[in-house]
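Good morning,

Attaching, inline, the backbone tokens for the sequence recovery test we're adding to the shared suite. The designed sequence is right after.
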């Protein structure tokens, strides 16, 4: 029962028997609520739909009191009171004061009519001719003008008053109660100033004067009869109006004094404004319902335009300046030049150094086990060490400039050009990303060598150089070590075999001298050593050329990849869904 009494007859869902002249408009508004759900105030839309449900719709008017309901209740009583009749019980009930902060709803009906208790509203039946003639109900509630108009602006805060249901614990439940028209009542210049501040930022969302009227309580002028209202604001004196009403009720002979006091109080201007738009003209819409629909459509279009402007401002703010991109590209070119110079000079120094000469072909007999160590040292200490550090610095520049925003993470392809053999189960167990971003920190390249697992830690900078170094260490150093061992064994075996053959010839052919027999051994030793020299030097030169060429490839790949990020990165995310929603909502409004 309580739930059924929360909403008045204008807030329930629209019935199906919509007049034929309003069906098309009703269908369009109903579709608008679904298409532009993010931008429409559903409570106002439901009130508008209810206004289309009948030929003579109920119109709801709000009387909002600044800082409380006292002055609003007094104005509502004066507007609805019948001067020709005595003071009714409803008048005393209306002015008795607000009960626990609840709102007051005035409907046409007999004073004795019973209304169920409602935690939001105190409903009072008023036998006022105005309510009956114009099918009007009056909502009296207070309004807070000190906290701003909220996210939807002061206009919506006035036309959609909020009713709060008290709760045992917590802030309670807030229910929106939309109205067709509203009169904002204040007492004294301070309330007028407070209202002006409240609506000061409403330039973009103007408050329609045909739907909102401001009445500020100030003393009535004594020099002229009547009160000329300013634009949207009327000065009223409720005390003068109350005295005039009481005097006329005392005796009809006081009609002149009543007329003078009533018109000087400013209430006739409020009454005239209220009556404007409440009359039904044939089968046409009531102007109040029409204004509600137009206001709702204007609000939707304003919200869509504001969201478009906010999105445009975000796009402008997130755009990377062109001079920033140009500066980073210049730094990238300098880095590439220094990296290629480093690759050439450091490798030349390493191959001309003492350690590299330790594995000359004739020293392999006692240095064969040092080949792997020396080759690994060249790669780890002389192969693009400074270039890798420079790439980290470049990545910092990219991050600082915001170029990673909107980046589609290029370089996710697997490294397909392995120096010796393609990747398989014996090499990388998972695909390697040459350029790793923060979002793929879980993506790791795993190296398996001699049963020991080595994992290059994922970093938020280009990984082509360290990954290529790991590949070279895994795929080129072991074969070079194996070749050195094979050459040493082959050379020693060939020398031993030639010496044995020389001794056998000497023993089996007595006519040959020792010198002649030793020629066989000498030939075998010379041939084995020459073969060892040629093959080892060729292998060393091939390894030097290979790591040099792979270094150039790694640098070129890193340079191209960073350049691609500079050119394409930092682009704002495309709000395709939002654009489509706003387009559909705008079409529904039109």
């Amino acid at each position: 029962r309580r739930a059924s009494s929360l909403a008045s007859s204008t807030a329930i869902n629209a019935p199906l028997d919509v007049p034929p002249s309003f069906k098309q408009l009703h269908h369009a508004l109903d579709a608008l609520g679904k298409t532009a759900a993010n931008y429409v105030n559903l409570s106002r839309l439901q009130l508008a739909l209810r206004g289309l449900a009948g030929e003579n719709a109920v119109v709801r008017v709000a009387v909002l009191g600044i800082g409380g309901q006292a002055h609003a209740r007094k104005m509502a009583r004066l507007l609805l009171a019948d001067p020709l009749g005595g003071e009714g019980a409803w008048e005393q009930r209306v002015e008795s004061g607000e009960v626990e902060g609840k709102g007051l709803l005035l409907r046409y009906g007999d004073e004795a009519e019973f209304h169920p208790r409602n935690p939001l509203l105190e409903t009072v039946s008023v036998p006022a001719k105005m309510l009956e003639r114009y099918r009007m109900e009056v909502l009296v509630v207070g309004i807070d003008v000190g906290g701003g108009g909220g996210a939807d602006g002061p206009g919506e805060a006035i036309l959609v008053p909020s009713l709060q249901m008290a709760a045992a614990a917590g802030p309670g439940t807030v229910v929106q109660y939309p109205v067709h028209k509203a009169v904002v009542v204040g007492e004294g210049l301070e309330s007028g100033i407070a209202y002006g501040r409240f609506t000061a930022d409403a330039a973009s969302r103007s408050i329609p004067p045909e739907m909102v009227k401001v009445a500020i309580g100030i003393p009535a002028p004594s020099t002229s009869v009547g009160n000329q209202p300013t634009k949207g604001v009327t000065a009223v004196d409720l005390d003068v109006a109350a005295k005039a009403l009481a005097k006329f009720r005392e005796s009809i002979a006081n009609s002149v004094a009543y007329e003078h006091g009533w018109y000087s109080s400013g209430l006739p201007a409020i009454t005239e404004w209220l009556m404007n738009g409440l009359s039904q003209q044939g089968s046409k819409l009531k102007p109040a319902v029409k204004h509600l629909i137009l206001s709702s459509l204007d609000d939707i279009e304003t919200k869509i335009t504001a969201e478009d402007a906010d999105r445009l401002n975000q796009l402008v703010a997130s755009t990377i300046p062109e001079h920033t991109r140009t500066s980073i590209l210049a730094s990238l070119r300098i880095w590439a030049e220094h990296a290629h110079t480093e690759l050439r000079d450091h490798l030349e120094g390493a191959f001309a150094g003492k350690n590299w000469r330790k594995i000359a072909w004739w020293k392999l007999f006692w240095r064969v086990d040092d080949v792997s160590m020396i080759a690994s040292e060249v790669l780890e200490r002389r192969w693009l060490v400074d270039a890798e550090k420079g790439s980290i610095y470049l990545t910092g520049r990219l991050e600082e400039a915001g170029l990673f925003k909107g980046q589609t993470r290029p370089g996710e392809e697997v490294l397909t050009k392995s120096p010796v053999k393609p990747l398989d189960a014996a090499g990388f167990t998972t695909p390697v990303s040459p350029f790793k971003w923060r979002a793929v920190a879980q993506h790791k390249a795993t190296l398996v060598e001699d049963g020991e697992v080595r994992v290059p830690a994922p970093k938020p900078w280009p990984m082509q150089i360290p990954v290529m170094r790991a590949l070279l260490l895994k795929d080129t150093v072991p074969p070079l070590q194996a070749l050195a061992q094979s050459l040493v064994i082959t050379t020693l075996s060939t020398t031993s075999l030639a010496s044995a053959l020389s001794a056998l010839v000497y023993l089996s052919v007595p006519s040959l001298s020792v010198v002649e027999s030793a020629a066989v051994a000498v030939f075998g030793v010379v041939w084995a050593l020459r073969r060892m020299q040629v093959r080892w030097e060729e292998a060393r030169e091939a390894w030097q050329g290979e790591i040099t060429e792979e270094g150039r490839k790694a640098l070129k790949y890193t340079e191209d990849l960073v350049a691609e990020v500079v050119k394409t990165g930092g682009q704002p995310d495309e709000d395709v869904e939002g654009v489509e929603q706003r387009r559909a909502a705008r079409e529904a409004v039109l």
